[in-house]
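Here is the promised in-class demo. Please do not try to memorize the tokens; focus on the logic of going from shape to residues.
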């Protein structure tokens, strides 16, 4: 997630059946590794992508595999 969020080409802009914009983040192999909330506007979605790109590289890592 941290590495992929820094690469703009890994973000895929989409639209729900209801017409709401959202985005997914893909790994290098094309697998979806994250999905955003639904936004009320394309501008909101773009701001959300910028926020992820800016904050993900320094986000705290929580390993839940042992839970």
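The designed amino acids, position by position:
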């Amino acid at each position: 997630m941290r590495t992929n969020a820094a690469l703009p080409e890994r973000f895929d802009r989409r639209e729900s059946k209801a017409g709401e914009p959202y985005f997914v983040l893909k790994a290098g192999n094309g697998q979806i590794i994250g999905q955003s909330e639904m936004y009320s506007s394309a501008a909101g979605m773009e701001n959300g992508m910028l926020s992820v790109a800016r904050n993900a590289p320094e986000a705290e890592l929580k390993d839940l595999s042992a839970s």
